[in-house]
């Protein structure tokens, strides 16, 4: 039983503001925070570090509804008041009990208690919808929060402390517990005709929170369709790729990228020597506005080429390719090409990129992020991620799903079939030089320059570009006859 304190998004700066401006200490109290800005696991870890006894997370309508549209699911894609975002709060990836090595039957496992508070939560965590959050906030006392802390519920947001009703306290009752379970990865393979020991990997996870029609089943459906089409071509003896194509269906992604991470850890030596690229589609469609692509630099050129061959699925924009629409809606800094984001974490590409540097891609079709200032698609990880939502609200007619399958399939075909793998090394040097310039102009760069010169870093980037240009010239002069 405890008092209830509102901590905005539950970030470091939010707790620091409470201490500095309100002398509020949350030690021993339950805190309530809205989703957004940072990973939910960070919210839990920070609440623990600041001494909270529990944390309640809710999807605020300011972040998951649209002010000018009062309608919610099933009339629109906006989250209703009972919508609750589930999700892991594990701060690592893979099996937490076997860090850095595969979770086989005979593997040594660390003590779970040693992970609590840092990687695993040591306090109760409970997600709720904004309907229930409104009731809880209405019971809270204390001063009114500043405007930047106010959400979209039609109620006065307060810092909290003792509840309005004298003697009332709040309690979180959690009935879940950690249990070891076996999960499985599933694979399909089309063996290459010339280089069978070189692998182009396509991946999607199949586990979901509740129905998961968007995450991950939109991607699962597309991967199954790509595998069906390619499989039929092979069976009919019309085509077989030069290199092997492997379709990867990952288990337990939602619990912390477990299936893909454990597979990489088990086969990392073979993969590091033989894998060509990993192509990930977690969620195929969260909207029908434009493609959203993330990739490591070596795959940029091949991704652009694939999108140039696929018609834009928006029939109102006939004659455009996906590339044309992507470039128009999301151009890069100099507006010469579509923007491709760097890959961080959050989906199954993470271990391929971070543990052995495999060229990788992550694709989704998304909504207009300039128009909708929201943390994610509104129905994310809720019970309203249904087939109805995909069929009637996001992609009627499934034309966007079709386009995603064509992009994914063509990208895989090009990487698997080309005599010379279609990596453009110039993209790597271009991105590297851009990162050096970005570091130099950042606050971090300014601090570094007070203690050292960045001239050698610039020189190294220029030397790399010089070698890359020489390699590219040599590559262009290779005789490509079979």
Describe the structure.
The protein is α/β, with parallel strands linked by helices. It is 35% helix and 13% strand. It has helices at 12-22, 40-49, 61-64, 130-139, 217-235, 258-274, 300-308, 322-329, 349-356, 387-394, 399-417, 425-441, 443-449, 455-476; strands spanning 4-6, 30-34, 54-58, 125-128, 160-161, 186-190, 195-205, 243-250, 275-280, 290-295, 340-341, 360-366. The strands form 2 sheets. It has a 7-stranded mixed sheet, sandwiched between helices. Helix 3 links the parallel strand 3 (54-58) and strand 4 (125-128). Helix 5 (217-235) crosses helix 11. The longest helix has 22 residues, at 455-476. The radius of gyration is 25 Å and the shape is globular. The termini are far apart. The mean pLDDT is 95.
What's this model, at a glance?
With 482 residues, this protein is α/β, with parallel strands linked by helices. It is built from 14 helices and twelve strands.
Give the tags.
single chain, 482 residues, alpha/beta, seven-stranded mixed β-sheet, 14 helices
Q: Low-confidence parts, pLDDT < 50 over ≥5 residues? A: none
Radius of gyration (Å): 25 Å
Order of strands, widest sheet: 6-8-7-9-12-10-11
Mean pLDDT: 95
DSSP strand count: 12
- Amino-to-carboxy terminus distance: 74 Å
What best-fitting shape do the alpha-carbon axes yield? globular
Structural class: alpha/beta
H/E series: EHEHEHEHEEEHEHEEHHEHEHHHHH
How many alpha or pi helices?
A: 14
């Amino acid at each position: 039983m405890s008092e209830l304190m509102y901590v905005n998004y539950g970030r470091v700066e939010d707790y620091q503001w409470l201490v500095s401006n309100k002398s509020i200490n949350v030690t021993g109290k339950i805190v309530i925070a809205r989703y957004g800005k940072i990973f939910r696991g960070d919210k839990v870890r920070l609440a623990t570090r600041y001494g909270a006894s529990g944390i309640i997370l809710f999807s605020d309508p300011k972040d998951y509804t649209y002010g000018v549209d009062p309608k919610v699911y099933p009339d629109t894609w906006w989250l209703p008041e009972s919508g609750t975002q589930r999700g892991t709060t594990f701060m690592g990836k893979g099996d937490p009990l076997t860090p850095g090595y595969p979770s086989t039957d005979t593997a040594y496992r660390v003590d779970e208690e040693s992970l609590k508070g840092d990687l695993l939560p040591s306090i109760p965590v409970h997600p709720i919808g904004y309907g229930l959050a409104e009731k809880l906030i209405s019971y809270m006392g204390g001063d009114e929060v500043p405007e930047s802390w106010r959400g979209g519920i039609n109620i006065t947001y307060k810092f909290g402390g003792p509840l309005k009703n004298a003697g009332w306290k709040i309690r979180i009752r959690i009935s879940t517990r950690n249990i070891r379970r076996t999960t499985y990865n599933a694979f399909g393979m089309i063996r290459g005709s010339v280089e069978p020991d070189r692998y182009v990997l396509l991946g999607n996870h199949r586990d979901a929170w509740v129905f998961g029609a968007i995450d991950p089943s939109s991607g699962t459906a597309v991967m199954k369709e790509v595998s069906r089409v390619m499989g039929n071509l092979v069976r009919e003896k019309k085509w077989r790729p030069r290199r092997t194509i492997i379709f990867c269906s990952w288990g337990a992604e939602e619990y912390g990228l477990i299936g893909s991470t454990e597979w990489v850890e088990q086969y990392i030596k073979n993969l590091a020597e033989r894998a060509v690229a990993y192509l990930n589609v977690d969620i195929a469609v969260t909207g029908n506005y434009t493609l959203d692509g993330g990739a490591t630099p070596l795959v940029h050129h091949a991704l652009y080429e694939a999108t140039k061959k696929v018609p834009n699925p928006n029939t109102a924009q006939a004659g455009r390719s996906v590339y044309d629409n992507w470039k128009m809606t999301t151009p890069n800094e100099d507006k010469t090409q579509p923007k491709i984001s760097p890959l961080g974490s959050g989906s199954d590409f993470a271990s391929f990129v971070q543990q052995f540097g495999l060229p990788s891609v992550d694709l989704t079709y998304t909504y207009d992020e300039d128009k909708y200032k929201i943390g994610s698609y509104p129905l994310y990880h809720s019970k309203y991620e249904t087939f109805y939502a995909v069929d009637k609200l996001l992609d009627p007619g499934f034309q966007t799903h079709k386009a995603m399958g064509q992009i994914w399939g063509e990208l895989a075909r090009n990487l698997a079939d080309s005599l010379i793998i279609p990596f453009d090394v110039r993209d790597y040097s271009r991105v590297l030089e851009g990162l050096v310039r970005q570091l130099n102009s950042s606050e971090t760069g300014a601090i570094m320059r007070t203690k050292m010169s960045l001239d050698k870093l610039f020189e190294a980037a220029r030397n790399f570009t010089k070698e890359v240009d020489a390699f590219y010239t040599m590559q262009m002069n290779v005789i490509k006859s079979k």
